[in-house]
Amino acid sequence: MNDNYTPTEQLIRFMDGDMSGDEVATLEKELAGDPARQEELENLRNTRMAVSRLGLQMQVASIHAEMMNELKATEKDNVRQLSPVRKITQFTLRIAVGLFILIVAGGLYQYFSISPDKLFNDKYAAFNVGTSRGNTQQSQVEIEYAKKRYEQVVSIFEGIQNPTVKDHFYAGLAYLSTNNLDKAVLNLSSVLTKNASFNTNEFQDDAEYYLALSYLKQQDFDKAVPLFEKINADKLHLYHDKVGNWFLKEVKIAKWKK
Amino acid sequence: MEVVKNYTDSELLEALRSGRGMNPVLKFLYRQNFEVLKVYVIQNSGSEQDAEDIFQEVLVSFIELVRLEKFRGDSSVKTFLYALTRNTWLNELKRKGRADVREMKFEKAKDTIDEDAAQKIAGRESRKQVMDVVEKLGEQCKKILLAYYYEDRSMKEIVDIAGYDSEQVVRNKKYKCLKQLEQMLTADPNMAKTLKKALNYE
Predict the structure, then answer these.
(1) Residue A47 in contact with residue B178, Cβ under 8 Å?
(2) Closest by Cα among B129, B5, B106, B12 to B59
(3) Are A217 and A181 in contact (CB under 8 A)?
(4) What CATH number is given to the structural domain containing B193?
(5) Interface pTM, i.e. ipTM
(6) Which tens digits make up the pLDDT trace of B163-198?
(7) B42 in contact with A at a CB cutoff of 8 Å?
(8) Cβ neighbourhood burial of A119 (10 Å; 0-12, 13-18, 19+)
(9) What is the number of other CB atoms lying within 10 angstroms of the CB of residue A59?
(10) What is the rounded CA–CA span in Å between residue A30 and residue A116?
(11) Does the CB of B156 have a partner CB in chain A at under 8 Å?
(12) Residue B76: inside a domain, yes or no?
């Protein structure tokens, strides 16, 4: 053992690995029987570890500051890069939400505003005698109907013994105009029945359309819907343009509401 | 421009054990883990500043555990850092007397964690005590001891760094500084015990 060193210096040299093999062996023997020196060595080692920790903390702290700058800059870059995309996304979403709200609001308005009376009023227009098809010979019923004297039409019709298809048709329209729906349905149906029996087609399309409207006003959707569907499906039907898909949907909504 | 290097777990551990090329390793650890762990702290009643403080402490502890061979590598480095963050932040919340600690959002780790090592992370108080001991040394003492024990510099280099006349003067100064610290510990066995426990993760 080198006696030029104090006992603590020897422990430090031992801890730092500065001793020769012989010195290490001698010191280890001394330490084995000396708990106080063992404790001193342990304290020195812990001191060295504490210093190392301080060094490590300082190194991490210096990197920390640098990395915070880098990570925050990266975050800003990402936000900046994403901004146009986000803006477009937000804009698109807003439009989609706006449209959705409009559609829902429109749907709700439609749902609550639809009624058989409204649908009837939208589609009903008094039959124009001038456009009548079939028999060109004007009957008394037809003349009175053209003058819109519906009570007269009914009165004359009820006095006819054997009404023709045309009589039934104008009587049906007159009953419809005076809101006598049961008789309107009866006479307009007679037009269809007689045409079927006589294999004729007199006022066929007109009777179908006004009969469907009569059922609609009666809220008899089970009979109205098939007739409207038939008119809607038949492109050659005289009233095809009046019974579009949208109207058909509205009738079905009214049926569902009922 | 700095080249960003990626490390496998084993490369990373090897670099930390050797202490060589530490800065790129530390940066890699920051890039890979900080944001996720920051979110964890913030989600559990912490602030951004808390997250920064905790992450620094976690890194120091992680490196020391690796060097003490107390991280066995049963889990990935990422998972282990998560566990360390969780325990460090939990300790901190307990220290602050937060009642809602039980409500912390503990995510179940998908792989096994070196839970023993992660649990032994010292509280902030103990770590502060360790640093208080070292801080009691003067600036020159810290400079010499850090250069010798942390930066692994030779006596000749320290002569230049610390501005002394000779290696012998530095050697004497280093001895006095160590002796001063050692005497503080000898005089206060409780502090010595706390220091030992905190430094060795016991």
Answers:
(1) yes
(2) B12
(3) yes
(4) 1.10.10.10
(5) 0.87
(6) 888 999 999 999 999 999 888 888 888 888 888 888
(7) no
(8) buried
(9) 20
(10) 113
(11) no
(12) yes
Residue A66 forms contact with B (CB below 8 Å):
yes
CA B172/CA A13 separation, integer angstroms = 12
Same domain, B113 and B156: no
Residues whose CB falls within 8 Å of the CB of residue A132, separated by 6 or more in sequence, listed in order: A142, A203
Burial of residue A219, with CB atoms counted within 10 A of its CB: 0-12 exposed, 13-18 middle, 19 or more buried: middle
Q: How many CB atoms lie within 10 A of CB B109?
A: 17
Contact status of A79 with chain B (Cβ, < 8 Å): no
Alpha helices in A114-220 (DSSP H): 116-123, 140-146, 150-159, 165-177, 181-198, 204-218
Q: Judge whether B164 lies within some domain.
A: yes
Q: Which residue of B has its CA nearest to A8?
A: B179
My answer on whether B85 and B64 are in the same domain is yes
Number of domains in chain B: 2
Q: Which residues are within 8 A (CB) of A258 and not within 5 positions of it... i.e. 6 or more apart?
A: A219, A221
Nearest by CB to B175, from A9, A54, A64: name it. A9
Measured between CB atoms, which of A40, A43, A50 is closest to B130?
A: A50
Taking CB atoms and an 8 Å cutoff, what residues of chain B touch A9? 175
Q: Is A61 on the interface with B (CB under 8 A)?
A: yes
Query: 3-state DSSP call for residue B145?
Result: helix
Q: Would you call A71 and B30 a contact, using CB atoms and an 8 Å cutoff?
A: yes
pLDDT of residue B110: 43
**DSSP state, residue A148:** T
Range of the domain at B95: 9-121
Q: Are residues B149 and B113 in the same domain?
A: no
Are the C-beta atoms of residues A164 and A139 closer than 8 Å to each other?
Answer: yes
The DSSP line for A1-26 is --TTS-HHHHHHHHHHT-S-HHHHHH
Instruction: State both tokens at B131.
Output: 């640093």
Phi, then psi, of A28 in degrees rounded to 5: -60, -35
The answer to whether B150 contacts A55, with C-beta atoms less than 8 Å apart, is yes
Helices (H) and strands (E) in chain B, counts: 10, 0
Task: Name the token pair of B6.
Answer: 């990626």
List average pLDDT for each run of 10 residues in chain A, which is 258 residues long. 78 92 92 92 91 92 92 75 71 88 84 87 86 62 91 93 92 94 95 91 92 94 94 91 91 87
